[in-house]
Amino acid sequence: MSEPHKDIVIIGTLDTKGVEISFLASQLQSLNLTTKIIDVGIGSTPQIQADIGRDVVASKTASDIARILIHTEGKLKAMDAMARGAIGVLEELIESDEVSGVMALGGGVGTWIGMKILRSLPFGLPKIMISTLPFDIRSSMGAKDIMIIPSVTDILGLNPILRKVLQNAAGAMVGMAQLSELSATSAQVVAVTALGVTTPLANSCKYILEAEGYEVATFHGVGVGGKIFEEWVQTGLFTGVLDLTPHDINNFLFDGITPFYSGRLESAADKNIPQVIAPGGLDFISKGPLDTLSQEERQRKHYQHSPMFTHVRVNSAEMEEVARELAIKLNRGSGTTQVAIPLRGFSFQGHAKGYLADHQSDMSFVRVLKQKLQPVIPVVEVDAHINDESFAKVVCTLLLQMINSNQT
Description:
Blueprint: E1 7-12, H1 14-30, E2 35-39, H2 54-59, H3 65-69, H4 75-95, E3 99-106, H5 108-118, E4 127-131, E5 147-150, H6 160-177, E6 189-194, H7 199-211, E7 215-220, H8 224-234, E8 238-243, H9 248-253, H10 267-270, E9 275-277, E10 284-287, H11 295-299, E11 302-304, E12 310-313, H12 316-330, E13 337-342, H13 359-372, E14 379-382, H14 389-407
């Protein structure tokens, strides 16, 4: 039986981006790939012919294209209907193994529709969004592997700059679409969260776990990275979790500059996956460049982590608030969670001689956390700094013991 024919699917609003989509298709075809164009336009007459027209797309949501085009229920609902319709079309094509990659192209409307579609697609299927970047689209990516290519110019007519961008995008898709499938790993995988302030800890844990035969997937434990971490934990891929850097809580409670995902610190507990929690980064708030700090923040201990980030020390009362919030999250679990506390500091600059040193505030956190956690959640105190190798050995031992107990 012959292999099914596979296309690169291109998604866009053909009423405004038809010429540019046609050029992108021609570049893919010149590289010996076949294409299928899906129209998700919600405006005037398409500039080119689609392989799958917007009427077909609309029908997948039981919507009337005529009502969509005149925005009977508003423009946003029209955009959502076309995105959901295209997802339905793609699900059928993917089910019949007719897709080797998906590309979307757009400005404000097209990027919103395109990102909604792309993040619905299976992990590993090549996905490219060519965008004018009209808004910060990181939060639109979800936990998916979407390649973002800035269009540099507006997508409003071909020019030497845009042609080169589209040609490069086609080349990138060709490279991904022609790759062989990776063989599956037989190793169990542990998820780890880290930031620059806990990188030595994450590295030490990685070496320990790899020596035990595990693979390690490390996630940036703040903002979008925290959300991605939680979504991947929910998939059931991980045998265990080392959430070493739950710093997101501070940014949520004290107006840090990175976004917070409301489901943070809940997935492993909800799915009863063995996890060890450490207080990495709970001693500071992530703020912007030094010159953006308020007068009150400048009077606190602070440290310029990079030109874009300043870490501002959390005081004793705030540390107690962090402990209460953390306890609420962790108490969702039922015996598969342990907490490990490094008594000599919670971050790179949290040691006794560091810029963020405040042992009394750290101990306020420990005291309240122990009071608020359910008795079923042990708190193990370690006479070490968070980045000491001795602390890494403790958290890995705790996790491995839970994993072994869970599997017997």
